[in-house]
Amino acid sequence: MKNSSLSNLLPLILAVVGATLLSASTTSLIIDDFSYQTDEEARSFWEAGYGFPEVAIGEKEGEHYMEAPLSYQSSQSRHYWDKSVSLDLSPHKRFTMDVEIPCFDYIQSFTLYFHCSSSESWAFINHEIKSIGRQEWVFHKEEFSYHTEDVDWGSIDRIRFSPWKFQDGDSYLRFYQFLGLSPEISIVHQADSANPEIARDTAERIDALLSEITWDAKIINSSDVEKGRLDGAKVAFYPYNDNISEKEIEALQDFIEEGGHIIAFYLLCDELASILGIKNTGWQEDPNGWFHSYIFDDEEIIGLPKRVEQNSWNIRHAEPERDDSRVIAFWEDAGGERQDYPAWLISNTGAFMTHIVLDHDVPNTRQALIGIMGELHPSLWKEKMEIALEESGKIACYENYEQEAVFNYEEDLEP
Question: What is the reported pTM?
Answer without folding.
Answer: 0.66
